[in-house]
Amino acid sequence: MSKHTPDSGATATRRDRGQVAIEYLGFIPLMLLCGLLAIQAGLAAYAANQAGTGARAAARSGSMSLGGGCDERAAKDAMSGWTAKKARVRPGGSGDEVTCTVRVKVPDILPGVNIWGTAERSSTMPRT
């Protein structure tokens, strides 16, 4: 009679049981980093969009006013809350057009890691 010996495949399965958990734990930081970078890219795109909206509003309002300069109030009113608070409006242009530049600081997801810095957009409108 032959003795019963454990199947070599069953032994390997029992020993490898914790390996998947260890590999998964090593992969989690990479997944979190990719997720945070995606959120940071979305915030940068949103800040750039809001800067463009503010620049157009400031130039449009400034082109219709008697003073003819950039209307900072109109720029910030056209933007959403946190972008308006972080926005800086810079006038420009000469002659018969008004150019306004809006710069918005992109917030950092990870403190101290400033990847994108600021988003800046300009808009030019003719004086009416």
> What percent of residues adopt helix (DSSP H or I)?
40-55%
Rounded to the nearest angstrom, the radius of gyration is 28 Å
Low-confidence residue ranges: none
C-alpha end-to-end distance: 106 Å
Overall mean pLDDT stands at 85
Report the sheet-strand fraction: 15-25%
Task: Write the element-wise H/E pattern from the N-terminal end onward.
Answer: HHHHEEE
Structural class: alpha+beta
Shape: rod-shaped
Query: How many domains comprise the coordinates?
Result: 1
Major beta sheet summary: 3 strands, antiparallel
Q: What is the strand arrangement across the widest sheet?
A: 1-2-3
Number of DSSP E strands: 3
Distinct helical segment count: 4
Write a structural description.
- The protein is α+β, with helices and mostly antiparallel strands and 128 residues long.
- The chain has one domain (12-126).
- Helix content is 52%, strand content 19%.
- It has 4 helices and 3 strands; from the N terminus they run ααααβββ.
- The protein has helices spanning 8-15, 19-64, 72-78, 81-85; strands at residues 87-92, 97-105, 118-126.
- Strands 1-2-3 form a 3-stranded antiparallel β-sheet.
- It is rod-shaped, with a radius of gyration of 28 Å.
- The model has no long low-confidence stretch (mean pLDDT 85).
